[in-house]
Design goal:
about 350 residues, mainly alpha, two-stranded antiparallel sheet, about 65% helix, LivM-like
Length: about 350
């Protein structure tokens, strides 16, 4: 994404209350340092957690959390910061998975190269889809992205000579680096979480760049952003493409981890799940995306002991959370972090509701 020019400098006006321009590089502000401290704390927790895990199944669940986090990070840029709703990201997730699987297993392409080629293909597809659909707003945009997801789902099933149809595509090779193969739950854990955490850093820097301020201006008032000279159509398509690439990378990791991809994994219900992760975690919060991915991946597994009542209890918990925490868990996490900083003499919390540095 290119930063706004003279028009873009005016773009910060609608979002000025939430993202003041200090003139300092976004990597060196106090909130940026707080973000990095939080990032390091999560990285340390991820590094130490395997010491407490006792089964491969526990690694599997956490690996799925990491893959979901990558998708939700990109989706949060689109929905939480730019205000554009998408119920079609499972399609990009699936396109990345199938593209990487077919290129590496059928055509012998190196898996890492296959991931890159798939991401490029998804970027082109997202641009083609995004240009017309992002002219729509509200429910019409929701229906358009749902329709796109349904089309991709049908193609994955019907194009059986390439995709394997409803039975899925098998024989996807694992990823490897310098002779080290990520073909076990434990080894893939390090790869998945490494990628997920690393992608949080450029996402955070984008949010607090001039482009990020323009996206928040679009979120708050698209007509106002246009009046300030922000090329809203261009920015919406660019962030749509970027979020689709995040989903593609996650899909490729998913395929090379499991060794099999099936169309059922990428239907519209998966798109709804991704959106729900954003909502539960907190729209416009990168740390909220982590919380949402963790809650909606781990909680169903924990409720499995209730057998036939599992879905009922899970639905009730989601309903209660959405009623009593309509902004997700991120405000609660931010308040808790602020109290911890005040208790340690670290200053007050920045609780700006839109785009403040504390928001990620």
């Amino acid at each position: 994404m290119s930063a706004p020019s003279s028009a873009g400098s005016s773009a910060s006006a609608p979002a000025s209350a939430s993202a003041p321009v200090t003139g300092r590089h976004p990597l060196f502000t106090a909130p940026a340092r707080r973000f990095m401290r939080g990032w390091l704390a999560v990285a340390v927790a991820v590094a130490l957690l395997p010491l407490a895990l006792r089964s491969g199944y526990q690694f599997t669940v956490l690996n799925v959390v990491a893959v979901n986090l990558i998708v939700v990070t990109g989706l949060n840029l689109l929905m939480g910061y730019a205000g554009q709703i998408s119920y079609g990201h499972a399609a990009f997730f699936g396109m990345g998975a199938y593209g990487s699987a077919i290129l590496s297993a059928t055509h012998g392409v190196d898996p890492w190269l296959a991931m890159g080629v798939s991401a490029c293909g998804v970027a082109v597809a997202a641009a083609v889809v995004g240009v017309p659909t992002l002219r729509l707003k509200g429910n019409y945009l929701v229906m358009a992205t749902l329709g796109f997801n349904l089309i991709v789902d049908v193609i994955l099933v019907q194009w059986s000579e390439v995709t394997g149809g409803s039975s899925g595509f098998v024989g996807v090779p694992p990823l490897a680096v310098a002779g080290i193969s990520f073909d076990t739950d434990r080894s893939f854990y390090w790869l998945a979480w490494g990628v997920a955490l690393l992608l949080l850093i450029p996402a955070r820097n984008l949010v607090h760049s001039p482009v990020g301020r323009a996206l928040r201006a679009i979120h708050d008032s698209e007509p106002g952003a246009e009046a300030c000279g922000v090329p809203t159509a261009s920015y919406k398509v660019q962030v749509f493409v970027l979020s689709a690439v995040f989903a593609s990378l996650a899909g490729s990791l998913h395929a090379h981890y499991l060794g099999i991809v099936a169309p059922k994994t990428f239907d519209i219900f998966k798109s709804v799940e991704f959106v729900t992760m954003c909502l539960i975690g907190g729209m416009g919060s990168l740390w909220g995306g982590l919380a949402g991915a963790l809650l909606l991946t781990v909680l169903p597994q924990m409720l499995g002991v209730f057998e036939e009542h599992h879905d009922l209890i899970f639905g009730a918990i989601l309903l209660v959370m959405l009623i009593f925490m309509p902004r997700g868990v991120s405000p609660w996490l931010r308040d808790m972090a602020g109290r911890m900083r005040r208790g340690s003499g670290g200053g007050t919390s920045d609780s700006t509701p839109h785009g403040g540095e504390a928001r990620p």
